[in-house]
Design brief:
252 residues; alpha/beta; eight-stranded mixed beta sheet
């Protein structure tokens, strides 16, 4: 396993990504960008990039905030995330910079790119799909924020496939937000799937999330199932064969 930190930029902002790949294998391989949660790029995001590299992909844990900029408390995390929630054009530009960087790596298949994101990172990868960035074939949101963007919509139908793994009791995106998201994806002509976990809240994939009274609780079972769903989804997105869909209209 080869890993290294990579400096890249968005305008005048220097960012620091984390690259992971199996260097024993030659030739190009699909790219999976990992978007971190609200506290910034950390060991959790980097381990996910390494896991993806072990599966044969090129894993790249992006940096939304800037080199060395990380949050150390809920208050700091919220302050770091807030500008991107308010300015979704900035958010899209920042995650697009990571995609453009990753696709230029040696051994990267620039035509087969996916992205996964956790919490705040889930919103980031969903905006990537909404924008229709070239080469992005699928995104996975894991307990992500689901609110739609106000930016100009990308191509319709939406090109990238979407998998959203979500806790039914997530206080960050309650059932009404889930229904609105489902309608948005359907109206966009997206090939979308939502995997809902009963009795689960926010951050169910993160072992350090131990705050049930605040709706944030790690769940080993949900983490295992969501990772298995993600693996299957990525394998399908990167396969040469395109599966045919039989659309059923919504009853009047």
């Amino acid at each position: 396993m080869h890993t290294e930190f990579i400096d890249y930029s968005d305008g005048e902002t220097t960012l620091e990504g984390y690259l992971a790949l199996d260097s024993s294998k030659s030739g190009p391989r699909p790219v999976v960008v990992v978007a971190h949660a609200w506290d910034g790029q950390n060991d959790f995001a980097r381990k996910k990039a390494e896991r993806l590299a072990g599966a044969g992909y090129l894993g790249f844990a992006l940096d939304m905030y800037g080199k060395g900029v990380r949050g150390n408390s809920p208050e700091e995390n919220a302050k770091l995330m807030e500008p991107f929630v308010k300015d979704r054009a900035l958010l899209l530009r920042r995650i697009a910079a990571a995609v453009h960087t990753a696709r230029e790596f040696d051994r990267a298949d620039r035509h087969r790119i996916a992205a996964i994101g956790f919490c705040f990172g889930g919103m980031c990868v969903l905006d990537l799909a909404r924008a229709g960035i070239d080469g992005v074939v699928g995104v996975v949101s894991l307990h992500g924020l689901l609110m739609p963007t106000t930016a100009k919509p990308g191509p319709r139908p939406m090109k990238a496939r979407v998998l959203a793994c979500h806790g039914y009791n997530d206080p960050m995106a309650r059932p009404d937000a889930v229904l609105a998201f489902a309608k948005e994806m359907t109206d966009a002509g997206c090939d979308w799937t939502m995997m809902m976990f009963g009795h689960r809240g926010h951050a169910f994939t993160n072992p350090v999330a131990q705050f049930p009274q605040q709706g944030m609780q790690f769940c080993e079972r949900a983490e295992h199932r969501s990772m298995a769903a993600m693996d299957s989804f990525l394998a399908e997105c990167f396969a040469d064969k395109q599966l045919k869909l039989g659309a059923v209209p919504v009853p009047a």
